[in-house]
Amino acid sequence: RKEVEQDPGPFNVPEGATVAFNCTYSNSASQSFFWYRQDCRKEPKLLMSVYSSGNEDGRFTAQLNRASQYISLLIRDSKLSDSATYLCVVISDSNYQLIWGAGTKLIIKP
Amino acid sequence: GAGVSQSPSNKVTEKGKDVELRCDPISGHTALYWYRQRLGQGLEFLIYFQGNSAPDKSGLPSDRFSAERTGESVSTLTIQRTQQEDSAVYLCASSHGQTLGLHEQYFGPGTRLTVT
User: Fold this and answer.
1) How does DSSP classify residue B85?
2) Within 10 A of B23 (CB to CB), how many other CB atoms are there?
3) Which residue of A has its CA nearest to B56?
């Protein structure tokens, strides 16, 4: 089993819809979690951190479920510009080792 | 301020040649990471530097790969005797350091390596 797993997609979603996807992790001692966004042929950029209490930033909501060992990303009122690959990152208890998921591809259609 | 820069942006080399890739991190960032990303694939961790030392080299795929960092700044990734499977985008990222909560990584634009 991979340490961090994501559904590769693609998720094809109409503009304006709500979409959510998950990222599961295997190390129960993992401490920190992040969502990054990567546009086609571009470098990844931090989208948001995932806190135990959840985190909301505009149309984006990230949540952590420690019991089931997954994090989620919800995008409301999706825009064409949201089309990208969304990467989750999990930091192990060693504090510096970042484990990256392979990404979920999202395509927003007009 | 300036972000992470990498050079060259593109490199085409013949199989068997050595290549050197360069990364200039954000000034003051003590942590530096190298990743490899093959087309359509996720990020593959290669090596991590804290200052000039590399506590984690576990991701280097073979002894043809090596990296160094000097002056807690510039890092070079060297691939000797390149093979076609080395073709990928090599991404460098830097961050403030190890402290939990300071893990936001800033990525450079990458070096696209093509081995013919």
Assistant:
1) G
2) 27
3) A97
Instruction: Check: CB of residue B107 under 8 Å from CB of residue B93.
Output: yes
Match 């300036």 to its residue by tokens. Answer: B2
**What pLDDT digit, counting tens, does each position of A2-60 carry?**
789 999 999 999 999 999 999 999 988 888 899 999 999 899 999 998 988 889 999 99
Local mean pLDDT, 10-residue blocks, chain B (116 residues):
91 97 94 91 88 85 95 94 97 78 81 97
Interface subset of B 16-55, CB within 8 angstroms of A = 31, 33, 35, 41-43, 45, 48, 50, 55
Q: Which tokens is A50 given?
A: 């995932």
Q: Quick check: B105 contacting A, CB < 8 Å? A: yes
CA–CA distances in Å: residue B43 to residues A101, B34, B35, B61:
8, 10, 6, 13
Q: Given an 8 Å threshold on Cβ–Cβ distance, is A46 in contact with B31?
A: no
Residue A91: which pLDDT band, with cuts at 50, 70 and 90? Answer: confident
Burial of A45-83, coded b for 16+ CB within 10 Å and e otherwise, reads ebbbbbeeeebeeeebbbbbeeeeebbbbebeebeeebb
